[in-house]
Design a protein that fits this description.
Low-confidence stretches: none
Largest sheet: none
Mean pLDDT: 81
Number of strands: 0
Number of helices: 4
Radius of gyration: 45 Å
Order of helices and strands: HHHH
């Protein structure tokens, strides 16, 4: 084994110092080819990193939108439950139904007396609060 190693180094040491122009040109072509391959690999890595970062940003945005939609759904669910409770109350209680009709829609009962007062401009903007007598 030592003879094989020795012949390798002997041949290397005894190699001519001058290299032929064809060998120089071949080495140059190998370097150019290696540089091009390296540039292509680096460009591909850059594209992959760019695509990864863009996809990660889109995913983060989608998660934020999904969370906001979930919160909105929770709020709307609470509102639906409140309205369903109010509907049940209005169906079950006649007084609640009458109160809603009077306050929200301005209905008047059969025995009620209606008195209309002229409003000034400031009263139209800020109507006075009237409390009923019991």
């Amino acid at each position: 084994m030592s003879q094989a190693a020795n012949t390798f180094w002997v041949n290397r040491v005894n190699a001519p110092v001058r290299t032929r122009p064809a060998v120089k040109k071949g080495n140059l072509m190998h370097r150019v080819f290696d540089s091009i391959v390296l540039a292509v690999i680096l460009a591909a890595c850059g594209l992959c990193i760019s695509y990864y970062l863009r996809t990660r940003a889109e995913f983060s945005s989608a998660l934020n939108k999904q969370q906001a939609a979930g919160e909105r759904v929770a709020g709307l669910t609470g509102e639906v439950e409140r309205l369903e409770g109010e509907v049940r109350r209005l169906r079950a209680d006649a007084k609640a139904f009458e109160e809603l009709a009077r306050h929200k829609f301005g209905f008047v009962g059969a025995g009620d007396v209606v008195i209309k007062l002229a409003q000034t401009d400031t009263e139209a903007i800020n109507p006075p609060v009237v409390q009923g007598c019991n």
